[in-house]
Amino acid sequence: MLLQPIVLSGGSGTRLWPLSREKYPKQLLPLIGDDSLLQATVRRVQGIADVTLAAPVVVSNEEYRFVIAEQLRLMGQPGGIVLEPMGRNTAPALTLAALFAIKKEEDPILLVMPADHVIVDKAAFQAVVRAGADLAAQGAVVTFGITPDAPETGYGYIQAGAAYGEAGEVGHGGTGIPGPARRIARFVEKPNLETARAYLDDGSYLWNSGIFMMRASVWLGAMAVCRPDILAACKTAWAQGTTDGEFVRIGKEAFAACPSDSIDYAVMERLAGGTPGDSAHAGTSKQSQAAGGLPPGVVLPLSAGWSDVGSWDALWQVLPKDAAGNVLQGDVLLQNCTNTLAVSEGRLVACVGVSDLIVVETADAVLVAHKDNTQDVKKIVDSLKQQGRTEGHIHRKVFRPWGWYDGVDAGARFQVKRIVVKPAGILSLQMHHHRAEHWIVVSGTAKVTKGSETFLVSENESTFIPLGTTHRLENPGRVPLEMIEVQSGSYLGEDDIVRFEDVYGR
User: Fold this and answer.
1) Which of 93, 142, 231, 411 could form a disulfide with 59 if both were Cys (CB 3.0 to 4.6 A apart)?
2) Positive or negative torsion for Cα 433, 437, 443, 448
3) For 397-501, which CATH superfamily applies?
């Protein structure tokens, strides 16, 4: 049985600001342990019994491509990275992944996972996924419903219906079907608190995890019935795409014409059973199968310490705590505090006599919020965007395919950056209209192109790049190159770059 992990990595995670930002969102961050959430997603499928595991396929946008490639490389898990020219929600993203999966004339079982979820119990997750693989191999579309432990109003719900595979099921006859498997009765949007309590008491409702399994051909067949317009646009965009190493670039114009829709709305709710009218998007699966040849929709309950880490409060819930319910990360001191999450990326953070607080320190922003109001962090991000402030979408430390830079200081007509170039990293051949640059090498060796000259600059040496001069920086060594760059001029924005050559295709 060939199992193809599909990781959807398109979210921005603004509710976890200031750690998560639009240009470097939560799935790329090591919020729990040493792995980023994306790396943890890939790692948790390793070791599933009795399957052949294909290399992971990540569907992302252009912005994150080099960071994702580097994180997969560090894991020893090189895979395919399908790049969407623009976001079109999860149904087109999965359709592109299915087209990738069948390109070798194989029909693997797709395990579709968001890149930004946390699952604490890996063994329990793998056991349920293995059961789901058997169902998917027989032609079902499987989703995983999280067994609720609270009347949560922040999640959608799935109502589990009749047992799947019971006597009378066409084509199954009850043979070899895992016991907990249930028909999907209906999907329900995020409820109010009273309704959520009723769902918890009822016992047949599960949280919608957004994790799915099906054969690639089954998904494409379901899209042909439910959303032929999306399927057609994705096929055209795929045919117009190009491959550059591990990156698969999709045809931009064709994909721009693709409608936007989620996996749930496009297909899953069409597979739901029950009485018509139970849900705004539910149909009856037997009627749908008869009318359009749709596969059965099945839900398996999952109890594995799952969280979508959609807010700081949710992150606090899944992290290890001290005896007083506190979570500390980084340089943090607490005195007489309870149920508090305190995170420091650099400076000392000290909290005294507080309860139920979220305190997050980064190089350029500090967040203090009550745990009951963490969903409103997004409003701060929206306000920053309205004011045109960069803190809403980008960190002071910015990652690039060649390494990273940190904006150490800035003032009128000057800016200071710390630059680290990884071994064999090469910046683009470029020129600036409005600024000059002074480079000081702290460690390593720099290969510098300045106009028609090419020369080496060693530790404790420097060079000056005048305004309007074509230049390039490279690291020819085997250790990271660390430099201080001092910029001076009338305009210091990152858009004052004219690129002539770039090995990374930017």
Assistant:
1) 93
2) positive
3) Jelly Rolls (2.60.120.10)
